[in-house]
Structures are given as structure tokens and as C-alpha cells.
Specification:
The protein has about 100 residues and is of the alpha+beta class. It contains three helices and four strands, in the order βαββααβ. The longest helix is centred in the first third of the chain and has 16 residues.
Length: about 100
């Protein structure tokens, strides 16, 4: 069985672009969250910096699957084309694997 992964993403945009960013992100968020392999997807905002967003996506498959099967889905393309020009810093992301069942509550 392939490992499950947690993808953590952090972006920085101008706070004035937040409504526009969220309007593009919402469709992608809803479609990704509806995928059967997606077990969790939550978005956060920095209360001291309205242009700093991060999100956590948990997937029931491994990183290799995510990179070859998930991120290549067609609904990511319009979202990325519309939002990447808004980034004022490079997007940061990292994949993590669960430590084990004893560390889940």
C-alpha cells in the first residue's frame, strides 16, 4: 500500500487581490476536495497578513501518485494561470507522510 501524504502549501499575494484569488481558487478547491482520494482539505489565512494563505491537503495515496495523477488534472490549469501572476513571493510547498496510527487522534 502506498503511503498517504499531507501537502502543505503557502502563498503570498497582495491583500487587495484576495477576493479575486479566492474566486479562482474556490472551483479548484471544490473539485480537488471532491476527489475520492482527498481525505482532508482546509485553507487558512494569517490574521496579521491578509495576503498570506496556506492550506493543507491530505491524500489517501502517495507523492508519486499525486504528481502523476492528481496535479495533472485539467481543472488546475485555469486556476494556476489566473493566480500565479498574483504571487508576490514564490509558492512554498512540502509533502509529509504520517508518522503512524499512534499519532492520530
Amino acid at each position: 500500500m502506498s503511503p498517504t501524504i499531507s501537502l502543505h502549501v503557502s502563498i503570498h499575494i497582495s491583500p487587495t487581490n484576495l477576493p479575486t484569488f479566492l474566486s479562482h481558487f474556490k472551483t479548484c478547491f471544490q473539485l480537488a476536495a471532491a476527489e475520492p482520494e482527498c481525505t482532508y482539505f482546509e485553507v487558512f489565512i494569517d490574521p496579521e497578513d491578509a495576503g498570506h494563505l496556506c492550506w493543507v491537503e491530505n491524500w489517501g495515496r502517495g507523492r508519486e501518485w499525486f504528481m502523476s495523477e492528481q496535479i495533472t488534472k485539467p481543472y488546475y490549469k485555469p486556476y494556476l494561470e489566473a493566480t500565479e501572476p498574483m504571487f508576490i513571493k514564490p509558492r512554498e510547498f512540502a509533502f509529509y507522510e504520517r508518522l503512524g496510527e499512534e499519532w492520530i487522534v
